[in-house]
């Protein structure tokens, strides 16, 4: 693929991830009333912020750990631990983000889990939990035999990209849905279909999230940015194993 | 990756693509009033059907042409032509699908291009048109030098998967949006949030589209399903060239 230098690309991605976070937090703070943990719409606002932070930005960072040049040399175990820890933190934020939306729905007597956004979003989080558990069991615990790890690794890599893609689709449908809810006909200064500033801002947030997801997938797909397989025993070293 | 036989996988994918088409057509026929070309909501109904047919099912078929074992042997040019023709047909259906929604909006004085779904969908179609034109210019016209083709090929492959992913995200947000529009509070037999049969059916359609997209990306990603690079001049044979 085109010769793009890795470090500036990663720096740009980090900036774009922070921009997504700034956009989603600003949207909720400026136009949706800010944040609280009281069952109100201000509790709901934690949902978009934490899902973007967990399932997109931090998830993307976890996926890219092995692409960083310092991870190419020396023992793999610290990078495995960083990858697993970032993914676990992303999962933790995601769970709190789900508690926020269920808490708001239950307090306001709104049904849960009816929209396609909610079905896809929950399926994505369930897949993520399976992915984390399977990755932890196969690559960090000492029980999986090498042939099973070799068989599972490309599956883990494929689902890594797939889950990010599904997260992005969930975010897009969620932002779209929230704007239809919030900017109904008669809303001041204008309904969604007249594109008030909030609509332009949140639509832009959606496109920034899509761009972030696509660029992370691009970085993962570039063959020359992959960690060279050095064949040392360390590449198969589990967390609790006795190798080396 | 896991050893799945290619032919049954492709047959399953073909069946799943047809199932997606049957679902979207049945949804519009049974619950949304059927089809017409008269500026009414029945004209709008062509939009979901043609976008799923063009940007998902036929697009997926075009992407998978080189994965079919008969394409692995002999001249590459017929498969290039099939790939380009399927993609062009997909693009044609997509354009008619866009005309259907713009025609309905204009006839009913509804603003165009305000939702995140519409922004992402149009961006996806624009990317697809660039992809087709660049692919045609580089791989079928005889003017591109081999180094340019070699440079562009992985970019074309990456954007091929990316556009399918964006199409799926556009479909999910579009189905979600349409259900909120159609199944408002007070709608018989029940609003969206009470999950009437239409909501379950269309949500299932959304998940089937996601599954189809993920499985196409899976087939594209499997290294042992890729056409072997035989290095013959034929792999670089353009449509109007004089090679061979």
Automatic annotation (TrEMBL), chains A, B:
Which EC class is the enzyme in? translocase
Q: How does it sit in the membrane?
A: Multi-pass membrane protein
User: Where does it reside?
Assistant: Late endosome membrane; Lysosome membrane
Record's InterPro entries?
A: CYB561/CYBRD1-like, Cyt_b561/ferric_Rdtase_TM
Per the UniProt record, which EC number(s) apply here?
Answer: 7.2.1.3
Quick check: keyword Transport in the entry?
yes
Instruction: Specify the protein name.
Output: Lysosomal membrane ascorbate-dependent ferrireductase CYB561A3
